[in-house]
Amino acid sequence: MPPPPPPPAPPVPGTNLVPSYKEQQKTALVSREVRWEDKFPLHCAAQCGSVPRLREMLGSAHWRCPAVINALDDDTWSPLHYSAWYGWSDCARMLLACGADHTVANLNGGTPLHFAAGCGQLELVRVLLEAGADPAICNHDKMTPSAVARDLQPRQWQTVKAVLDLCFWMMPKREQWHDCLLGLKFIPRNQSTALTFTAYR
């Protein structure tokens, strides 16, 4: 067996084991990886559903610039994608009112309407449709928002699919969408069956 390594040399008297100020500064000045929430603060506010933070940011003309409010993050999601995914309807309304584009698509061609439908966010689907989102738009997999809802089957997916299908068939009468969506009533036949339309204007 080889002999064990020698013990470390004892410190020289009069020397300080604490790094000097310059050495500490060199360590502190090493560039750190930028965090996502620092790089994309508007996306972060939309993801968290922080209405006060979003209102504060959108009060500045810089954040309302189309290139900024519709910017895609590293995952190719816009702030409106995050609001649609997490179901923050107030944030989505605020973004749309400040110029967010509901047609912006991610890397897979998914629009905020695809995201809202895929997550079963009924209120978000209504908000986006009233803003003029196209229920017939397809992603790169050739799937409409209605098809995404049917394929993923999230909560309220049957109601979401019914709303999207109704608006798809009413596309020639797009100006009546708002009244139609406001007049929808959903009544369950029983606890296990789908929600169905009972009346609409």
TrEMBL record:
<feature type="repeat" description="ANK">
    <location>
        <begin position="108"/>
        <end position="140"/>
    </location>
</feature>
<feature type="repeat" description="ANK">
    <location>
        <begin position="75"/>
        <end position="107"/>
    </location>
</feature>
<keyword id="KW-0040">ANK repeat</keyword>
<dbReference type="Pfam" id="PF12796">
    <property type="entry name" value="Ank_2"/>
</dbReference>
<keyword id="KW-0677">Repeat</keyword>
<protein>
    <submittedName>
        <fullName>Uncharacterized protein</fullName>
    </submittedName>
</protein>
<dbReference type="InterPro" id="IPR002110">
    <property type="entry name" value="Ankyrin_rpt"/>
</dbReference>
<dbReference type="InterPro" id="IPR036770">
    <property type="entry name" value="Ankyrin_rpt-contain_sf"/>
</dbReference>
